[in-house]
C-alpha cells in the first residue's frame, strides 16, 4: 500500500457538541491480532502493541535508548539515562535557487519531474508545537484544536509533558491562522519540497538522503513503527534535511499552502509556483507516525479537505527571508 490510511474526520457540528468520545487505542473491538506472538496486539486488551511486527516491543518490555517506544507507553526513551537534543527554536534558511521537484518513482501526481526556482524563505525548523499553538490561543488569534488528546494519550494538548510535541487536530484553516499570527504563512508545496530535498541537482528520496527510513531518522509507522503516536519534535538530528529542518519526514503530516491539483506539475510555472488558483482539497506533506516509508518521501503528495483534522496532521510555517 502506497499511502498510510489517514484517520481523518470531518469537523462536524457534532464534534463541537461533544458527540465524539475519545476511544483508547486498546479498546476491545473483537479484531484482536498478535502477529509477532509477544502476547499483545494492535487492538487487544490489556495493552496495545505499538509495533506488532517486532516481538521486542510491547507493553512491559524493557525501554532502551534507541529512539523507539520499546514498552509501548507512547513515550520514547523514557529512561533517566536517555538524553534528547536541546531544541533550537530558530527557523532555518532555505536559500533561493533551483531545485528538482517531483519523482519518477512515486505516484502519477508526482510527475513530471521538473525544475523549479524558489525564492529564499525562512522555514520553521520544527513542526509547530502545542506550546506555540497555546500562545496563539492565549492571544485570541487561534481557536482550540478539535480534540485535546493524541492517539494514545487522553491528555495531550494542554499537558506540560507534551509542550514540545507537535500540535494536532488542527485544520488547514487553523494552521493558516496560526502562521499569520506568527508573522508568516504556510509554505507552498514547492518551498516545502525544496526544504526536504535541497538544491538542484539533488533528487534525494528522503530529507537525509536515499537510505530507507528507520526510527533513528524519522518517527514512522508501518513495519518499522517507532512510537504509534507523535513524538517530541527535533529528537532525530539524523533525519535533518539539507537545510537543517527536522521531522519533515514523519511524526505528523504537514499542511501546506496549495490547493491540490493532481496534474498541476504539467502546467506549473517555473518560478515560485503557488498551486492551482482554486480547488477543494489542500495538500499535506511528509508522512506521519503511522505512515510507511513511501509516504515519507520528499515528493509524496496527499490532500484533504481544508476543514478536516486528524491525530496525525500538523504543520509548520515560513517567514520572509530577511526577517
Ligand atoms: Ca504483538
Ligand atoms: Ca516508552
Ligand atoms: Ca526506547
Ligand atoms: Ca513531519
Rg from C-alpha positions? 19 Å
Q: What's the order of the H and E elements?
A: EHEEEEHHHEEEEEE
Biggest pleated-sheet summary: 4 strands, mixed
Task: Provide a count of the helices.
Answer: 4
Strand portion: 5-15%
Mean pLDDT: 91
- Note poorly predicted spans: 1-28
CATH architecture type of the domain at 96-320: Alpha-Beta Complex
- Spatial ordering of strands, largest sheet: 8-7-6-10
> For this structure, what is the CATH class of the domain at 96-320?
Alpha Beta
Shape: globular
Helix content: under 10%
Query: What is the CA–CA distance across the termini?
Result: 42 Å
CATH homologous superfamily name of the domain at 96-320? paralog of FGE (formylglycine-generating enzyme)
**Which fold name is given in CATH as the topology of the domain at 96-320?**
paralog of FGE (formylglycine-generating enzyme)
Total beta strands: 11
> Given the helix and strand composition, which structural class is it?
mainly beta
Amino acid at each position: 500500500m502506497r499511502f498510510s490510511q489517514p484517520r481523518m474526520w470531518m469537523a462536524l457540528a457534532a464534534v463541537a457538541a461533544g458527540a465524539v468520545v475519545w476511544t483508547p487505542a486498546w479498546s476491545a473491538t473483537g479484531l484482536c491480532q498478535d502477529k509477532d506472538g509477544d502476547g499483545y496486539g494492535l487492538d487487544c486488551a490489556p495493552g496495545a502493541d505499538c509495533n506488532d511486527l517486532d516481538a521486542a516491543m510491547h507493553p512491559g518490555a524493557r525501554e532502551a535508548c534507541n529512539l523507539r517506544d520499546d514498552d509501548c507507553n507512547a513515550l520514547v526513551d523514557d529512561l533517566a539515562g536517555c538524553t534528547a537534543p536541546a531544541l533550537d527554536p530558530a527557523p532555518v534558511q532555505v536559500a533561493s535557487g533551483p531545485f528538482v521537484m517531483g519523482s519518477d518513482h512515486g505516484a502519477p501526481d508526482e510527475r513530471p519531474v521538473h525544475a523549479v526556482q524558489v525564492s529564499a524563505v525562512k522555514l520553521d525548523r520544527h513542526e509547530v508545537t502545542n506550546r506555540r499553538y497555546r500562545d496563539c490561543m492565549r492571544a485570541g488569534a487561534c481557536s482550540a484544536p478539535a480534540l485535546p488528546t493524541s492517539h494514545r494519550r487522553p491528555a495531550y494538548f494542554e499537558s506540560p509533558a507534551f509542550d514540545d510535541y507537535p500540535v494536532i487536530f488542527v485544520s488547514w484553516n487553523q494552521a493558516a491562522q496560526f502562521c499569520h499570527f506568527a508573522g508568516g504563512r504556510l509554505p507552498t508545496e514547492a518551498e516545502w519540497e525544496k526544504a526536504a530535498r535541497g538544491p538542484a541537482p539533488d533528487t534525494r528520496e528522503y530529507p537525509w538522503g536515499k537510505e530507507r527510513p528507520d526510527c533513528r531518522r524519522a518517527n514512522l509507522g508501518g513495519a518499522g513503527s517507532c512510537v504509534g503516536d507523535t513524538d517530541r519534535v527535533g529528537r532525530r538530528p539524523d533525519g535533518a534535511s539539507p537545510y537543517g529542518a527536522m521531522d519533515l519526514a514523519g511524526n505528523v503530516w504537514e499542511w501546506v499552502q496549495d490547493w491540490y491539483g493532481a496534474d498541476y506539475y504539467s502546467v506549473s510555472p517555473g518560478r515560485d509556483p503557488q498551486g492551482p488558483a482554486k480547488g477543494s482539497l489542500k495538500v499535506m506533506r511528509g508522512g506521519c507516525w503511522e505512515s510507511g516509508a513511501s509516504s515519507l518521501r520528499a515528493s509524496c503528495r496527499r490532500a484533504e479537505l481544508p476543514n478536516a483534522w486528524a491525530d496525525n496532521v500538523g504543520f509548520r510555517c515560513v517567514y520572509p527571508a530577511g526577517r
